[in-house]
Amino acid sequence: MVDDASAGEADLSWLHMSQDPNLIAQWIFRSVARPLAIAWFFVLLALIWTFPLQHVIAYPFVFLFFGAIMCSAWFGGFTSGAMAVVMSSIVVTFFFVPPLYSMTIGRGFQSYMVAFVVCAIAITAVSSARKRSETTVKAARDQLEIRVKERTAELERSNSEIREREHQLRLLTEAIPQQIWRADAAGCVEYCNGNLVAHVGTDTNSLRGEALFSFIHHEDAALFRHTWRAARAAGEKFEVQARVRAANGSYRWFLIRGNPQLAPGGEVACWYGVHIDVEELRQAQQELVLAQDDLSRFSRTFSMAEMAASIAHELNQPLTALMTHAHASRRWLSAEPANLERAVATSEKIVRDCTRASEVVRRIRSLFSKTDYVREPTGLNALIRDLARLLRDEALRHDVSIKLRLSEDIPSLALDRVQIQQVLLNLAMNGMEAMSKITGERELEISSEMPTPNGVVVTVRDHGVGLAQQVRSKMFEPFFSTKLGGTGMGLAICRSIIEAHDGRIWADDLDSGTAFHFSLGLGNQ
Amino acid sequence: MNFETTDAPKQTVYIVEDDSSVSEALSNLIESAGLSTQLYSSAEEFLEVWSAEMAGCVVLDVRLPGMSGIELQAELAEVKSVMPIIIMTAHGDIPMVRKALKAGAVEFLTKPFQDEELLLAIEHAFALNLTERSNRDLLKSILLRYSSLTPRERQVMELIASGLTNVEVAAMLGLRVVTVKVHRGQLMEKMQADSFAELVRMAERLKAS
């Protein structure tokens, strides 16, 4: 069956396809031959039935032709209907309208024929329009069905894609070497990945709810709970470090990080948490802190106290020998009778050991002699800044703030970097210790200035307890100390270093605290 | 000062000190007091020659190459040396003093020291050593005599030394009083006890060892 819509399409495509004889033949069949055949068939059927029936029903009987036209228009379309109209008109005029068997229409029958033709045309129009609309509805329904099928297939496809993607995601969360959990909006844990479960050594079900967090070390539990509660209240991500118990009962440090997943409405839908093992990191940090401690202790204690102790020991041994020999000598001489031989031998040993002792003294002096210094052009301000950086932790421990006030016109100086740093370190540490007992602001100020064109002055000022008069007069002397366990060498060594740099070191008593100054000459840069 | 001793072997001061000039001076001083010395430059060297027969005392420096003075002190206690120890140090810190004195050092000297300090310490140490050694020798001879007793005599000795009478001992051991008296006479003779009181003292020493 061919509908008008497709016939129309064929009409339009005819122009393009005119070159193709096969297509032209098809067009002729669809648009001419087929409607003609349909029209012929129905009109002939009507004609055959009208002959016997005209003797029964009133004359002239033509109603069957309306049926033929209607059927032609229904099955063959408008063209077929129009052809049936023409054929019916001819057949009716020839066979049934007087004069019979001629194409002329008798008088009195003209109006009848006109009515017949008009009715026929109307039937054609109505029937074909009806048919067309029915075809359109059917086509639309078919199309709809196809669409639904397509849509269903599409949905199924995307469903399986989602399932696949979810599976992949699950595989990913299990595969990455991190410990992951998910909690609902209220903070109840719903899911833990394999790594997390393996680490704490239990099964997923027994980690649900709050159970997961019971593996946190009791000392860190309060901090964690507080942070976690605050994060839930605010709906914001959080981060906290805590020790988590492993399957074997040992604790390791973890960085626990949680992120809220927001629903489209803006409220928290769920929480994702990740545990990152930071045990090694923390150990490294602690080692760094210890190393820094050691460094400052080394630079301070070793150089000063150890040197003093080793000098003391070096001198103590020959002194012991000397004193013991002297005692022995006295005993040999005061014996009855006096043992002169042993007394003389002892005296010789005294002389020998004296030489040894003075050798020790000479060696110590040479440690501080000028010739041993390495002098390099050095930026004094940079050196002070470096030192302040080194002292940062020490200052935090003493609750002291370090303030630098450095003059920008200080030229580069020829000096022994390590030794000057040693002096500064010593003065700064003294300053911080002097402030350890005060309640006011603890500020240590290190300043550099150039009061005259041929010298710079560095000042280390504290707000500490100040210096007693008897301390002031003796503090630069060796082995003078006000501290328990102090070696009394710190300021003495500072002075010898500064003097070796053609400078001078002195102290000023201020209203609050003390200022230590040292000058450095520009002469030998 | 008088350091005369009655018995051989002669008491000697054993000096363990790595600084040769110091040990030489110590030896000089100690010799001026009429005593003999032996010098060792390390703890290991001294331990090699040590024997239980050595008499006198040890003068030790804390700071020694290899084994320290404190470690040597522990080692000597381990081998049951009865020689008193005098410790010397150049830096007398309190924990070390406490440790050394706790381990039984008789004196702790901080270098440099006065001659009297050292010599008095040595005198004290010698006296201590003498007593220790005579105690040890006495115990040895008592043990020797005790080993010559028969088991029955040992039983009787233990009981009478604990204060029981002959009659009580006889009843306890199921013997006749006469037999107990015989045993008693024999063991007194074997133990070379002049009196009953001396026998009791011997029994106490044996018990204490």
Report on the architecture of this protein.
The complex is a heterodimer of chains A (525) and B (209). With 525 residues, chain A is of the alpha+beta class. Chain A folds into four domains: 4-146, no CATH class; 177-277, 2-Layer Sandwich (Beta-Lactamase); 284-367; 376-521, Histidine kinase-like ATPase, C-terminal domain (Heat Shock Protein 90). Chain A has 13 helices and twelve strands. Chain A has helices spanning 4-17, 21-53, 63-95, 110-175, 194-200, 218-234, 279-334, 340-367, 380-390, 392-398, 417-434, 469-474, 490-500, and strands spanning 179-184, 189-192, 238-245, 251-262, 268-277, 376-378, 401-406, 413-415, 443-452, 455-461, 504-509, 514-521. Chain B is of the alpha/beta class and 209 residues long. Chain B has nine helices and five strands. The longest helix of chain B has 33 residues, at 115-147. Chain B is elongated and about 75 Å long. The chains are: A alpha+beta (525), B alpha/beta (209). Chains A and B meet through helix 7 and helix 8 of A and helix 1 of B.
The average pLDDT of chain A is 82
Tell me the number of structural domains of chain A.
Answer: 4
- Quaternary state reads heterodimer
Cα-atom radius of gyration of chain B: 23 Å
> Order of strands across the widest beta sheet of chain B?
2-1-3-4-5
CATH architecture classification of the largest domain in chain A: 2-Layer Sandwich
Tell me the name of the CATH homologous superfamily of the largest domain in chain A: Histidine kinase-like ATPase, C-terminal domain
Topology-level CATH name of the largest domain in chain B: Rossmann fold
**Quick one: overall form of chain B?**
elongated
Instruction: Give the structural class of chain B.
Output: alpha/beta
Radius of gyration of chain A, Cα only, in angstroms? 58 Å
Task: Note the gap between the termini of chain A.
Answer: 114 Å
Note the total helix count of chain B: 9
| Overall structural domain count of chain B | 2
The secondary structure category of chain A is alpha+beta
* Beta strand count of chain A: 12
Work out the number of β strands of chain B.
Answer: 5
